Amino acid sequence: MLQLTTSAAAIVGALLALWLGAAAWALATGLRLRRSAQEAALRSSRLQALIGAAPALIVLVHADGTLEGSDRLADWMGLDEQPATLDALTAADKGLSEADLEALRDDVRLAQSTGKAVYRSLRPQQSNRTFTVRGGPAPPGVAEPGAAILYLFDATQVRGEIARLTDEADRLAKAFDALSGLIEASPIPMWHRGPDLKLTLVNTAYVKAVEAESAADVIARGVELVEAAPGRNPIAAAAAARDGDRTISRVLPATVGGERRSLSVVDVPLGKAGVAGYAIDVEELEQARVAFRRFAEAQRDLLDRLSAGVAQFAADRTLSFHNQAFMRLFAMKSEWLSEGPEFDRVIERMREAGRLPEVRDFRAWRNERRGWFTAADEGQEEAWMLPGGVHLRVVAQPLPDGGLLLIFEDRTEQVALASARDTLLRVRAATIDNLFEAIGVFAADGRLQLWNQKFREVWDLDESFLTAHPRVDHLAEAAGRQLANPSRAAVIRELVRVATQERKQRSGRVALKNGRHFEFAAVPLPDGNALFTMLDISDSRRIEAALRDRNEALEDADRVKTAFVANMSYELRTPLTSIGGFAEMLAGGYAGQLAPAADEYVRAILDSVARLSTLIDHVLDLTQSEAGGLPLERKSVDMRRVAREACKAAESAAAEKSIEFVAELDKSLGTLHGDARRIRQVLDNLLANAIRFTPPGGRILLKGEGFAETARIVISDNGPGMTPKEQARAFDRFSRATGEGERGASLGLGLPLARQFVEAHGGSLSLASEPGQGTAVTVELPRT
């Protein structure tokens, strides 16, 4: 047996110890490496699971074009097997299209050669999925140089979400534009304040209200719609709305467009976005409220003045108003009524005062009246007969607020008056039936309302026909059968129409077949009806016919008389001419020298012949004028010359009676178109009458003046004058003077003849006289 030395044993022990230590170290290192390998494998498998579950696929494209990546690539591209190269990404109608594949190749080549990043969207054939490809050169250590790494993201849902969000954004943008347009077009001022409560947006109505140039000007200057004043600071109100997160509304005065208006200003908090506001013009509303209050007060004042009792109950059936007439009518005290008693208590107090109708079951009667508050119809109306003969008309009107309005009208006097009226109507009917005239009353619609027996007898109508109240056209048709001329029936209808619609009175006459004549009239009545009356005038018609026949006979006699006078005047001219001729021969000495007395007789014969010739001429002129055949010679007439000649001829006669004669002829008298001889006759006759009836020592004035269309001559005297009765007969050619030198009822033929000559020229002759003051005759002759 080998014996080891101590040193050798020590060396061996040391070697063994070293080996044992190395073995332990190796074991520990192996165990540590094993744990590291296990951890690395676990981490690798975890990373592999994460990469497999990632929404993106990682594909490594080597420099030779081969692919390395996730097994899901074939499924995403719709391929049957995993592609090994880029070219394998398309197959028949699967995978990428040729255009997409070619574009992807170019992107990969650029990434491999230049390091340019890859960004592209791909959509495999026959697939609704969309992929986004991003990538670039492969990082060092991942693959060999020249390789590229691609990341494929499934953007199908993202694209849909983007499209949805885009549509939503478009919708919101349109809604915002519409809302902005609505705010801008709003007729009321609207604004927005930022978180700092400064104005950031105002509409056009706001700009107009504050009379600014533009919205930018308003925002820049911070112009407030409502002026700041103690207790109504607009910014403080907006701050209160923001801090309290509540809408604040108040009515404030403001100047809008130069006018003082009342605005309802509203501030609406918008959270962190600030505060919005708007203002509504409530000036008309405030005025309406004031007017309504005034109307209510005026209505209550009016109701208090009514003679009818008025009581108003609120929705809770308590008395809210009563007038003085209500208290008097039901003998109630104001203190008790002012307490607002309930409806039932008021009814009971009426019963205690004896102001309700007597009923058997008062409770049931009261409950029925309580139903007035909820009546479905417009209102209720009743007639109450109270003890003592008092008649009440009761109107119950439900109010929109659930209350009730009661009106109590005392109709006792009306009932008495109605009874008296009925009596009067009966008396009137009896009176009308016994009148001699036929009477019918037609209503405004043309229907016969009232008639008497005389009316029925005249038209021979049945009582049943009249009681049906026929219209006037049907009545006229029935009455036409009794008329001598049936077409005259339309006159009845027309008269009634004029009386009822035009409110005018018309009358006329009508003849019946039986020979009777009636005078009828349609008179409008105050109540809108028309009264049609018929009076039998058959007797007066017969008298009228007799008088008409007599008048015609007198007119015929007058014409015969006129013709006789004219013929006699012509017949008298022949012997008168012979007498005048022989008298002139005797005066001329043809029968020898006459004795002085005979010569005087001959001159008297000649004067009488001259006067008789003048009278015959006057008679002929009068008869010709009456027959309408007075001959006139129409020429230019110098009125001043004609007047001067007439004055010259009258001067000697006036001088013989010691009468002062004055003529004033103005140059304006001028000329006119007429018969100079007839005008001269007019002046001669008027001057002769004036001289004849003016006493000695009197005065006669002839004044002539002209105008644009007429010439006027006035002959006045200061003689005895004429009474109105004498003036009325002055132009009557058949009246006689009462005496020489005295104004009688006529002035002979001079005035009648003068008037006829003047009127034949289209002029006028007027006479004015006062007893003891003289007479003035005015002649007006037209220029043409």
From TrEMBL:
This is histidine kinase. Residues 567-784 form the Histidine kinase domain. Signal peptide: none annotated. GO terms for molecular function: phosphorelay sensor kinase activity. It comes from the Bacteria. Its EC number is 2.7.13.3. The lineage of its organism: Bacteria, Pseudomonadati, Pseudomonadota, Alphaproteobacteria, Sphingomonadales. Gene3D superfamilies: 1.10.287.130, Histidine kinase-like ATPase, C-terminal domain, PAS domain. It catalyses: ATP + protein L-histidine = ADP + protein N-phospho-L-histidine. Keywords: Kinase, Phosphoprotein, Transferase, Two-component regulatory system. It is an enzyme of class 2 (transferase).
